[in-house]
Amino acid sequence: MATCRIPLVLLACGSFNPITNQHMRLFELARDHMHSTGQYQVVGGIVSPVSDGYGKQGLVLAQHRIAMAKLALQSSDWVTVDEWESQQADWTETVVTMRYHCGRILKEYEQSTGEHNDSSGNPSPLSSPCPQLKLLCGADFLDTFQVPDLWLDDHVEEVAGHFGLICVSRGGLHPEQAVAASDTLSRHSHNIFLVREWVRNETSATEVRRALRRGLSVKYLIPDSVIEYIHQHNLYTEDSERRNKGTVLRPLAKQATQPGKSLDD
Amino acid sequence: MDGQHLTKVVLLACGSFNPITNMHLRMFELARDHLEDTGQYRVVKGIISPVGDAYKKKGLIEACHRLEMARLSTDSSDWITVDPWESLQPEWVETAKVVRHYYKEMLEAEQNTDDLDTVKYAKKRRIEENHFGASSHQKKDGLQLMFLCGADVLESFGVPNLWKQEDIDEIVGRYGMVCITRSGSDPHKFIHQSDKLWKYRQNIHMVREWVTNEISATQVRRSLRRGRSVRYLLPDGVVHYIQEHALYSAESEQRNAGVVLAPIQKNTEVS
After folding, report:
1. Which tens digits make up the pLDDT trace of B60-96?
2. ipTM of this model?
3. What distance in Å separates the CA atoms of residue B248 and residue B238, rounded to the nearest whole number?
4. Which tens digits make up the pLDDT trace of A162-191?
5. Residue ranges of the Cytidyltransferase-like domain (chain B) (predicted)?
6. Residues in B touching A31 (Cβ below 8 Å)
7. Which of A31, A199, A211 has the CB atom closest to B219's CB atom?
């Protein structure tokens, strides 16, 4: 008897400043891993670059980060770039972005099943369930849950409990420790999929930007089309790296104004 | 700095390239940046020289495929090329011989160009070579061939019977090496512990790879055998080629299993 695999969409939020081969590799690794559980069928991947309102130092304009991501993913047949988050007026909490995509996926699903319904409106027996959405991230992302005031407790609960996380470990980081260090994450450990990347590939966007500032080659770390774009628009200079210097990261600024915030230090 | 005094460099990388990966290609970029950063060199060409099938390494697939994958991967490069000479030889060729071959070729190509005052430079080099003695480079007319490799190759100099001592002398002493470090190895220590390498330390350019990018071909082959994606570890063209030709299976990995590696075979026979 064939088991029905749950269709899955992977969502990666981040600066993508710029997108690198390692970012795209996350999707490949996650897809392979989720397939190998026997329970899931990955049907899509979404790259959602953060909006300029995030206020992170060195963040170049969203229009560029989106353009570069699109160039990089041109040759991918299952991962796409989504601009919704980057178009929002203010920085958007990860959970809000997830809710948006979840709602969108549900609407699309209902529309397409509606087309296949029989006359009495019952879904045809061959239709699969609505795709689930899970957050795809690197192991360093799990550590951010420990940063004071960066996440609201409710949001961690929702991301880990309701949606679920797929976390690809990088180099020397140990995601199991990050999960164990958080009560909330531990409670939802069955919903947190840890993927071990055996090929040590620590191509970080930070290092890529550093190399670019110094006029060093980044070929084979990011796609050629992205390199070309960067040179055309002269992105990633010493000036661009100073952008937002001294600014408080938006999530921290926002959380600080939340009522009922814990005063523990 | 006057551009006329820059030594032109050709980088030569030998290896299985089974298959070629982004890391191999990155080595060339890193080496070029490093050498040019010293203000003494201008890197004019990179050569990828895949080893012949007679090397008999376990899991080594046919040279024709390895060559083609390397060619596909250098399509987008305007200075890195692939040369089939080594792989076309009927017997396995010592690395020193390969270096010698490309050095000769490089000189011949240079003689065919008009833009060097050979008399002036030959005299200058003769003076310098006499001055530097044992560590003098085979530098003719401001032109040098350097052997490009990872730190693991440098450390393989210590493996019994893998290298002839006189070959190490030649490659490192006479030509020069650019060595890309890998995390987990301490190549400076290795040089320090070897009297021979210590003697030639001026000829060994160590390049620190800050962006750890250890895409090992062994692991790539393992992933392929297990039906896992290797996208973004190798150039797209190479990934497609591998899929098209169904290279790298459990079967291909068993090739040459139990066979003695050609250099070891050769070096143990001689004694």
Report:
1. 999 999 999 999 999 999 999 999 999 999 999 999 9
2. 0.79
3. 13
4. 999 999 986 666 788 888 888 889 999 999
5. 12-222
6. 229
7. A199
Residues 6+ apart with CB under 8 A from A116: A123, A124, A126, A127
Q: List chain A residues with CB under 8 Å of B233.
A: 21, 25, 199, 201
Whether residue B77 and residue A219 make contact (CB cut-off 8 A), yes or no, is yes
Distance from the Cα of A115 to chain B's closest Cα (Å) equals: 34
Confidence of residue B10 (pLDDT cuts 50, 70, 90): very high
- Is some CB atom of chain B closer than 8 A to the CB atom of A102? no
d(CA B44, CA B180): 19
CA B236/CA B252 separation, integer angstroms? 22
Tell me which residue of B77, B86, B66 sits closest to B21, measured CA to CA: B66
Which residues on chain B are in Cβ contact (under 8 Å) with A28?
229, 231-232
DSSP A101-159: HHHHHHHHHHHHHHHH--TTSPPPTTPPPPPEEEEEEEHHHHHGGGSTTTS-HHHHHII
The average pLDDT across A231-242 equals 91
Picking from B73, B180, B232, B243 by the largest number of A CB atoms within 10 A of its own CB, the best residue to mutate is B232
Residue A123 dihedral angles phi and psi, to the nearest 5°: -65, 140
Chain A closest CA to B219's CA: distance in Å? Answer: 7
B131 CB near a chain A CB, below 8 Å?
no
What is the pLDDT at residue B202? 93
Nearest by CB: A217 against B29, B216, B235: B29
Interface test with B, best of A200, A201, A212, A220 (most B CBs within 10 A): A220
Across chain A, mean pLDDT equals 87
B22, exposed or middle or buried, with CB in 10 Å at 0-12, 13-18, 19+?
buried
Q: What is the mean pLDDT of residues A113-138?
A: 77
Q: Note the pLDDT tens digit of each residue in B20-29.
A: 999 999 999 9
